[in-house]
Automatic annotation (TrEMBL):
The keyword Coiled coil does not apply. InterPro entries: Leucine_aapep/pepB (IPR011356), Macro_dom-like (IPR043472), Peptidase_M17_C (IPR000819), Peptidase_M17_leu_NH2_pept (IPR023042), Peptidase_M17_N (IPR008283). Pfam families: Peptidase_M17, Peptidase_M17_N. Belongs to the peptidase M17 family. Mn(2+) 1 binds at D274, D351, E353. The active site is at K281, R355. Keywords: Aminopeptidase, Cytoplasm, Hydrolase, Manganese, Metal-binding, Protease. Its EC number is 3.4.11.1, 3.4.11.10. Its main location: cytoplasm. It comes from Streptomyces rectiviolaceus. Gene3D superfamilies: Leucine Aminopeptidase, subunit E, domain 1, Zn peptidases. This is Probable cytosol aminopeptidase. PANTHER family: CYTOSOL AMINOPEPTIDASE, LEUCINE AMINOPEPTIDASE-RELATED. NCBIfam families: PRK00913.1-2.
């Protein structure tokens, strides 16, 4: 786990493997960003010229390493691109700082310590740099040789980060760093869960991890096993998990604050492996399906973050956990399931299983009468087709709430886009046998899934659905603070939503 501290030390006197500075893209070449004045002075004010000679432009994501100037205890200076120089009276913005810090942290993997001298005008900027650095330093090494990054050519994450220019005794700066540390650690734990192979993370194992964390942080936990699910009438969760030797679980995590005036319920899809069931996925589409529990991982991380931050809002997390496998006992296309809500669902495609486990969990969460329910799921390939691999879709039964979550996600640094729920698409889910089918029209499939879920929301309850199928698992190369593999998408949005709700900014 990467350590992070605020430091008042001078850049020249700090013992570290590298000093990180920012460089921006100016009209006539690279421009050294604020925070690097001492470093630039040691180059006789010619750091920008040296960087330009080395081919640096200041473009976002660019990394240039050069020997540190004489008199510095750190041997290397790492210049990281911040993008275009801001307009007059504007700042670089927290997103740019977060991404630059993450890029630098990734570039320094294997190093023991690095000092970050990026432009931070206030505590919010410092928090963004801390968050980006901690997320960028992430590494999943549990299955490498000797259980760590000690295999051939492997590098562990940057071990220690010192943020220069911070104010260790200032309450706002301390709070910003503590928040960044708590959220980043829980987000990275969510990444670990997403990256864990399904032979080691089945529903029971996931429930055990959540239970242990809940007890550590004073969160009340309840786990319903297959017997309790059967007795309770959770036909959706059981219908999905019945084909696997690893039975399903429904986990309830309850964080409460004595000062809370609002209650949020987060519901996460937790398919620990999705083969498609009898409607089997073809080769090329099932190799990364360990990530189909990313929604539950995000909900888990958000609830624990809320507890660690002591937010004055009640937050309940529901993890709907199952493994979707084909077998003689598996649900068949054409089967009808009686859901927890009492509705019946004709299963036309067993690979549309996420909405079945979510429907049961949403109906159960509705019984607590929360002020709002937000579900998170890697739900549809259709949403990936619509929004790509870096943006998640937001649907809701309340336009104002949908807009609020969109604003919150952007504030948190996560790309999202509001999506509609056209009522005419409901007809495509008409069933001659049951109350509703789990499939509808192919076109607009992500919206159809949202409409299906809406049917199970309790009357009068504000609800939103986040389809994170695109950004939840990065199959390409790493960028910014985003690693290859599990990303932890939606954790920061949920945490920021809880913070805004606690502050009375929503509802």
């Amino acid at each position: 786990m990467t350590a992070l501290t605020l430091s008042t030390a001078a850049a020249s006197g700090l013992r570290a493997d590298a000093i990180v500075v920012g460089v921006a893209k100016g009209a006539k070449g690279p421009v050294v960003a604020p925070g690097a004045e001492a470093v630039d002075k040691a180059y006789d004010g010619k750091l920008a010229s040296v960087l330009e000679t080395l081919g640096a432009s200041g473009a976002e994501g660019e990394v240039t390493k050069l020997p540190a100037p004489s008199g510095f205890k750190a041997p290397v200076v790492v210049a990281v691109g911040l993008g275009t120089v801001p307009e007059k009276d504007e700042t670089y913005g927290t997103d740019a700082l977060r991404r630059a810090a993450g890029t630098a942290a990734r570039a320094l993997s294997g190093s023991k310590k690095a000092a970050f001298a990026l432009p931070a005008e206030d505590a919010e900027d410092t928090g963004a740099i801390a968050e980006g650095a901690l997320l960028g330093a992430y590494s999943f090494d549990a299955y490498k040789e000797n259980g760590s990054a000690k295999g051939k050519d492997a590098k562990g994450p940057l071990a220690e980060i010192a943020l220069l220019g911070g104010k260790p005794r200032d309450k706002a700066y301390k709070a910003a760093v503590e928040r960044a540390t708590a959220v980043s650690e829980e987000l990275n734990r969510a990444r670990d869960l997403i990256n864990t192979p399904p032979n080691d993370l089945n529903p029971e194992a996931f429930a055990a991890v959540a239970s242990a964390a809940a007890k550590e942080h004073g969160i009340k936990v309840q786990v319903l096993d297959e017997k309790a699910l059967g007795k309770g009438g959770f036909g959706g969760i059981l219908g999905v998990g019945i084909g696997s030797d690893a039975p399903p679980r429904l986990v309830k995590l309850s964080y409460t604050s004595s000062k809370a005036k609002k209650h949020l319920a987060f519901v996460g899809k937790g398919i620990t492996y999705d083969s498609g069931g009898i409607s089997l996925k073809p080769a090329g589409h099932n190799e990364t399906m360990k990530c189909d529990m990313a929604g539950a991982a995000a909900v888990f991380a958000a609830v624990v973050s809320a507890a660690r931050l002591g937010l004055e809002v009640n937050v309940t997390g529901w993890l709907a956990l199952a493994e979707n496998m084909p077998s003689g006992s598996a649900t068949r296309p054409g089967d009808v399931l009686r859901m927890y809500s009492g509705k019946t669902v004709e299963v036309l495609n067993t690979d549309a299983e996420g909405r079945l486990v979510l429907a049961d969990a949403i109906a159960k969460a509705s019984e607590d009468k929360p002020d709002a329910i937000v579900d998170v799921a890697t739900l549809t390939g259709a949403m990936m087709m619509a929004l790509g691999n870096r943006t998640f879709g937001i649907m809701a039964n309340d336009d104002a709430f949908r807009a609020a979550i969109h604003d919150v996600s952007l504030e948190a640094g996560e790309d999202s886009w509001p999506m509609p729920l056209p009522e005419h698409l409901l007809k495509g889910m008409d069933s001659p046998t049951a109350d509703i089918a789990n499939m509808g029209e192919r076109m607009g499939g992500g919206l159809v899934a949202g409409l299906f879920l809406k049917e199970f929301v309790g009357e009068g309850i504000t609800w939103a659905h986040l389809d994170i199928a695109g950004p939840a698992f990065n199959e390409g190369g790493p960028f910014g603070y985003t690693p290859k593999g599990g990303t932890g998408t939606a954790v920061r949005t949920l945490v920021r939503l809880a913070e805004r709700t606690a502050a009375g900014d929503l509802g």
